[in-house]
Design brief:
This protein has 123 residues and is mainly alpha-helical. It has one domain: HPT domain (Four Helix Bundle (Hemerythrin (Met), subunit A), Up-down Bundle). The protein has six helices and no strands. α3 runs antiparallel to α6. It is elongated.
Length: 123
Amino acid sequence: MQIQEVERESGVNLPDLLARMAYDGELLREILELFKEEFPKSGLSLRQAMERGDLQQVRNEAHNLKGMLAGLSMIEGASSATRIERMAIECAPQGILEELACLVRCVAVAQLTLERACRELNG
C-alpha cells in the first residue's frame, strides 16, 4: 500500500493511525466495526437536532463526532465536524446540513481506506 498516496486521497492519516495501533490489524478491525455501528447513530442524532433547531445538541454531537473521527485519524471528517461545531457555537445554522453531507462523504471514503488497511494487515 502506498501510504502517503492513500492518505491524500482518503483524508486519513494512515501512518499515524497504524503507528498508534502498533500495526495491529485485528485491533484496527475491531475499532472500525465499533465505528461503523456508532457513526450512523451520531450522524442521525445531529441531523435530528438540526431539524429541531437545537443548536446546543448539534454542537454536542459535532464535538463527539470530531473526537470519534480524530481518534481514527480521519482528518477531513474531523475538520468537517469542527466546522459544524463552530457553526452551532456561532448560532449560524446555514450550511450545517451541507457540511454534514460533506462529512458523510469524507467518512465513506476514509472507511473504505481503513477497511483495505485491515485486509492488508490481517493478510
